[in-house]
Amino acid sequence: MRIDLQQSHAALPASAALEVAVLLKAEPDATTTTARAAAADSVHAGLVLDRSGSMEGGSGVSGLTKLEALKVAVQAALQLLEGCGATVTAAAFSDKARPLCHRLALAPRAAAGVAAAVEGLAAGGGTEAKAAMEPVLQALLPHDHTARRLVLVTDGEFNGGSVKPCRKLAQQAGEHGVALWVFGTGTSYNETYLRELVDLGAPGGMLVHITDLAALSQRLGDELRAVASATASGLAVVVTPSPGVRVLELTRLVPVQCAVALRPDGTAEDRMDVLDARGQAWVARLRADGLAAGRHALARWKVSHQENGQHHVQAFETALDVLPAGSAPSAANARVMTTVLSAHAAQATLLGNAALATQLYAAAGQTGLAQKLSALGTALPSSSDAARALRTEVLASTRLVALGSALPVKGGTP
User: pTM value?
Assistant: First the structure.
């Protein structure tokens, strides 16, 4: 695993308060990635599938209902999971659960059986998600697979009897290292509530709005492939600020942007079960108060992981040269600055502040996102299909800047 640590400025003129942004990137070694074959115990996917009456509606794909499009996506996912020797637990829900398989190690005959069970699903009834989510999560709790994901697909608001229980189940998932991937389609589901479930789960979760379920197959496949090809596990990052320095925020960027909670003692720690094929990135903002001219340590960074049966630990330090007051600062690191701008723009988008988000994306050189935000305007906080799709897009876009898939803009300020 390769580590790259960059900071927004190497030197700043003395001031009462100085702020520096730091970008930490962890990327899989190319030779390890291509050489690795997925281990049989690497992935356990738990599928929780909505088959309520509303899934009989149109999917956005000509001639297919939502449930039919969901079946296509699940069949493709089963083929992919079979190819990497994954384990699958699956259940569908309406007024009650319909079990499909339990801790099944996928092989050709086994996958065919699950595929047939999925194909036999019919839409009808309510949205009692707890009935399926509970047994699927129980199957995922044993820590006998490197990556465990609970995959929930729904198009509606849960029945009242499922709201609190599913929140408790998501919290239990988080306590046991199970991340939630939630795919919502349509405009009836409670976005705030589903986002809360994802946040309660383990790191690595995401809420994805699917405009039409034909896109589910591609997105779910991309995420499963990335996790199944992971080369490192047990990834942990600890940030310890120096005296007089505070960590203002730490944000994880893969698979989607997510704030990392800071500890009461001022340090920050984040853990991921795997480093997937895309790598991982964090962006932090550090504030130093009352530093005199000279060189000062800002923070210590410790990155640890497991790879090829060995435990690896790497340690780094970020420092700042404080110049005499009135001096010119060092040149800004464009990649770091653009990542910070993009992360703040995504957060403003999530909060419904279209004006601020548009301004920040424009400053970051992300003109496409700025134009989409400008077009939505005051409709951004709504539950419209377009607004939900844009919130999904921006939360996945910051990692593209940080990891090099989008070009940084010169200049700009966080």
Answer: 0.93
